[in-house]
Design brief:
CATH topology of the largest domain: D-Maltodextrin-Binding Protein, domain 2
Number of helices: 19
CATH architecture of the largest domain: 3-Layer(aba) Sandwich
Strand content: 15-25%
Largest sheet: 10 strands, mixed
Distance between the termini: 96 Å
Shape: globular
CATH class of the largest domain: Alpha Beta
Number of domains: 2
Structural class: alpha/beta
Helix content: 40-55%
Length: about 425
């Protein structure tokens, strides 16, 4: 009797093992390439909550989340390299033309029908849409604005200006007090883009959209005037003595230690600039002003783009249901509530800090949103764009010639301006 019981238990155990193995084999496996590590770093709180929450809600789906680091690197290097040997099911992307390149190559999964009802901001949805088809979602958006050291402004009886001319006057007043007006970090090239986008818009309104559509040249009036004003500010010392010698991390430290009064950059810095462990300075976030006279663009014309987005690839075509579950969950308030600093694209997520609240208000005020040029233009012309902007930081540069050289490159890669 005892032997029969042992035998029966052995059969039962083998059956359970076989059932477990069969269940594991039947699990849908999703491979996701992202940026942040799902660890205890406060800056990675959203991804940690996303991974843990999704696995708990969908135990029948095996989620393999792989952190690749900076999303620009993921988009332009690792994913590009992998596209010839195999893409993951989902990858993090800023959207725009870089994502569109994969769509044009037939590598992305059209989820227009499945994702059109997922709640989120129109601007974020637009970034993940290419030629009328939706390929992913954008849980968080970023806008460029002006971080202001409120303590420095108050101590020097300054108010945030409402015009570009007033902005210059504030910079002159700060410079006279021995305070660096603007932190930048142009050594890394891309940090100078946001201000140039704003200045071009303020002089020429939708000039960048017309140039991208080849209805306007990149060395036309608005671009040249914006570059000339930029260079004037560099020569005036608004960005410090060695802006090309300082990286983006240096710019952050200048703000964190109260050595610079303003930083024109993306709202992704709200988390760090609200963190008492990062800075003891009180900072605010404002929209970049409009020109008092002779301008076209308005203060409600905002520059920005997806901060965290996910795009699906055709590698996941056979497991579309699991992909949609992941993308929808990434847009859920449950996952989004963990984010400490970014602007949430999904409804139902409240800003964690006053700084993020200010950035959200700037985003909400936007009448137009222009996506980052170095993500929305074809990859063949984006790195040269940032190279061109860096030449504005050199006092002897003829900015018109720099822009004409860039226009020649754009003509070669995107076609001539249509008459």
């Amino acid at each position: 009797m005892k032997k029969r019981s042992i035998f029966a238990l052995a059969i039962l155990a083998l059956s359970m093992i076989a059932s477990t193995s069969l269940f594991a084999a039947d699990k849908v496996k999703l491979t996701v390439w992202g940026r942040d590590i799902a660890d205890d770093d406060a800056a990675h709180a959203y991804v940690k909550a996303l991974v843990a929450g999704f696995q708990a809600k969908y135990p029948d789906i095996q989620l393999d989340y792989i952190a690749l680091g900076d999303p620009g690197l993921a988009d332009k290097t690792k994913i590009t390299m992998a596209s010839g040997s195999g893409l993951p099911d989902i990858f993090q992307s800023w959207g725009g033309s870089v994502m569109g390149g994969y769509a044009d190559a037939g590598q992305l999964l059209d989820l227009s029908k499945e994702l059109k009802t997922v709640p989120g901001s129109a601007a974020a949805a637009g970034a993940m849409t290419w030629k009328g088809k939706i390929y992913g979602v954008a849980p968080f958006f970023a806008v460029a604005g002006v971080f202001v050291n409120e303590g420095i402004f108050k101590a020097n009886n300054l108010k945030y200006p409402t015009t570009v001319e007033g902005f210059e006057a504030v910079c002159d007043a700060l410079k006279a007090k021995g305070i660096q007006p603007i932190a930048c970090g142009e050594k890394d090239k891309w940090p100078g883009l946001a201000l140039y986008m704003y200045l071009t818009n303020r002089f020429g309104g939708d000039a960048s959209a017309r140039a991208a559509a080849r209805k306007l040249a990149y060395d036309s009036d608005a671009f040249v005037k914006a570059a000339q004003l930029y260079q004037k500010w560099v020569k005036a010392g608004y960005f410090g003595a060695t802006p090309v010698g300082e990286g983006y991390g240096d710019a952050q430290q200048l703000m964190a230690t109260g050595k610079a009064a303003m930083h024109i950059t993306g709202s992704w810095m709200c988390g760090n600039y609200s963190d008492p462990n990062f800075t003891d300075q009180q900072l605010g976030f404002y929209a970049f002003p409009a020109l008092k006279s002779g301008g076209v663009g308005k203060a409600t014309d905002i520059m920005g783009m997806t901060d965290i987005g996910f795009a699906a690839t055709k590698a996941a075509a056979s497991k579309k249901d699991a992909v949609v579950k992941f993308l929808a969950y990434s847009m859920s308030p449950e996952a989004g509530a963990a984010e400490p600093g970014r602007i949430a694209s999904m409804p139902g997520v409240k800003a964690k800090t006053a700084l993020t609240g200010q950035a959200t208000a700037v985003f909400a005020s936007a009448k137009t949103v222009t996506f980052w040029w170095d993500q929305d233009l074809p990859p063949s012309v984006t790195s040269p764009l940032n190279d061109t902007i860096q030449t504005f930081f050199l006092p002897d540069t003829d900015v018109k010639k720099s822009l004409s050289a860039y226009e020649a490159l754009v003509t070669e890669n995107m076609g001539a301006v249509k008459k």
